[in-house]
Shikimate dehydrogenase (NADP(+)) (Aeromonas veronii), 273 residues
Amino acid sequence: MDRYLVFGHPVRHSKSPFIHTLFARQTQQELEYGLAEPAVDEFAQTLRAFFAQGGKGCNVTVPFKEQAFTLVDRLSPRAKRAGAVNTIKLTDDGVLLGDNTDGAGLVADLKSHGVTLADSRILLLGAGGAARGTLAPLLAELPSELVIANRTHTKAQQLAAEFCDLGPVTAQTYEQLAGPFDLVINSTSASLQGALPPLAPALIHTDIAIYDMMYGASDTAFISWAKQHGARQTMDGLGMLVEQAAEAFTVWRGIRPGTKQVLRELKRNLGVI
Ligand code: ATR
């Protein structure tokens, strides 16, 4: 049976096996999908061993995405732009192809929530790996403006400079931000510490869409805060998780699974509904 894995550390709580098992059932593909949690300095050898023993493909999550970028034989254009790999496929001619489906997953999830990206003003909070992976797919949707704000402003400036050939992207400090924005995407890891990015409450209005790339059984700190300040449309990263997985499944198997039912079952599994 074709074997797939997700590599991460820690990875025990990963929902990827759950999601891919449902995709496989739905599309009648025979495969098994497991977890691998190598020590941080043993990722490269564990990855090589997996493919040497017949593995067909894998997902890669924190903290291995940048390392995976350097270990594959070939990169997709979107992985090259993202500087990180979250999906690896062993091609029929024995090449390890590195891809990145995170940004496509975000855009697909935003669209499934009815968020219009064309001609919109987007504010992206954070300038780490998660932000980097979303920039090219977001700019491809032709927003009128994409502003990056980050605690460490120089990192936002570097990112804006790197992607400005693809569209109207600029960097501003949190203090400089002037609304109205149509969509705010939180790619910071602040919610992990229960903290908030230092965003002025005045930037939140009733028609704004709020997206937190984090998720949990209850509202993230950022989503609670945005609701308190009047945001009506809030979304967490669970949908992005399912959509990036669907994109990875499509890369591996050449067949696109449906995501709606799987997202519903995942929510049930997490106790969200
Ligand atoms: P990831 O790969 O998830 O993006 P990362 O590369 O470590 O992780 O980036 C984390 C991002 O969250 C950074 O933009 C970080 O800001 P700095 O560049 O200033 O470190 C941001 N971040 C983390 N905690 C934050 C907080 N409490 N407030 C605001 N931004 C925060």
Notes: The radius of gyration is 18 Å.
